[in-house]
Structure formats: structure tokens, C-alpha cells
Amino acid sequence: MAEKPEDLNLPNAVITRIIKEALPDGVNISKEARSAISRAASVFVLYATSCANNFAMKGKRKTLNAGDVLSAMEEMEFQRFMSPLKEALEAYRREQKGKKEASEQKKKDKDKKLDSEEQDKNREEDNDEDDERMEEEEQNDDDEVDN
């Protein structure tokens, strides 16, 4: 666990970026307000995690999953965030599925290329063997003619 309570805070750079994206252009925020928002966000994340952990424990699991977080949001009475949260989760899953499929396709293409290179190598070896056999036969034919 964390050694100091400050260790549980979210990174200031992340909080600052989120705040800037949320505010209209030209609006500034004091360092004190940024710090307060950072602490509030950290407390919210810890509370949501604790609630989600309770759902995981009820399910006799040690790993939190998306369903646990969604259930925690409902328990915390944040129903109005459920729809955007579910949409973001679906978008994330689609992105991950696309990455997985792209990775699998890349692996298949690599395997095909390796198979093709292996076949080319085998053909070259077969051709070399055929050339050697023909040379031996020609040599044998020449030897028979000489005798």
C-alpha cells in the first residue's frame, strides 16, 4: 500500500490536462483549486475502487472487472454516468478487439511469409540436388563413353 497519503493522489499533469480540456478557452484555474480537484478526484477513485472491490469479494474474486465498477457506480448513486461509462467501455473493447485482430493478422502474414521462404529454400535445395544428380549422371555417361 502507499507509504504516504500523497502517494494515493493522481498525477498532477493528468489532472491539469483533464481540467484544461473541461474548461473553455481563456479560463484559468489557480494552483490551489487544481490541488483541491486532484485530491477530490483521488478520493473518488479510492472510494469507487473500494466499492468495486466489495462486489468482487461478493463474487469470491480477487480481480476487479468492469461489471464491478459499473455496479459500484450504481451503488454510489452515479446512475447519470452509467450510459457514458458503458459507451466508453464498449469503445475500449472494440479498440482492443481491433488491436487483437490486427496482431493476429500480422502473425498470420508473418507465418505465411516464413512458410513461403521455407518453400523457396526447399525448392532451391531440391534444384541443387537435381543439378548435382544431373552432373553425376553426365559424369557417369562421360566415363562410360571413355571406356
UniProtKB/TrEMBL annotation:
CDD domains: HFD_POLE3_DPB4
Location of the protein in the cell: Nucleus
Any one annotated GO CC term: CHRAC
Role according to the record: Accessory component of the DNA polymerase epsilon complex. Participates in DNA repair and in chromosomal DNA replication. Forms a complex with CHRAC1 and binds naked DNA, which is then incorporated into chromatin, aided by the nucleosome-remodeling activity of ISWI/SNF2H and ACF1. Does not enhance nucleosome sliding activity of the ACF-5 ISWI chromatin remodeling complex.
Gene Ontology annotations of biological process type: DNA damage response; heterochromatin formation; leading strand elongation
Encoding gene per record: POLE3
Gene Ontology MF terms: chromatin DNA binding; protein heterodimerization activity
Record keywords: Acetylation, Coiled coil, DNA-binding, Nucleus, Phosphoprotein
Organism from which the protein derives: Ornithorhynchus anatinus
Pfam families: CBFD_NFYB_HMF (PF00808)
Subunit structure: Component of the DNA polymerase epsilon complex consisting of four subunits: the catalytic subunit POLE and the accessory subunits POLE2, POLE3 and POLE4. Interaction with POLE4 is a prerequisite for further binding with POLE and POLE2. Heterodimer with CHRAC1; binds to DNA. Component of the CHRAC ISWI chromatin remodeling complex at least composed of SMARCA5/SNF2H, BAZ1A/ACF1, CHRAC1 and POLE3; the complex preferentially binds DNA through the CHRAC1-POLE3 heterodimer and possesses ATP-dependent nucleosome-remodeling activity.
Protein name: DNA polymerase epsilon subunit 3
Region annotation Disordered: where it falls in the sequence: 92-147
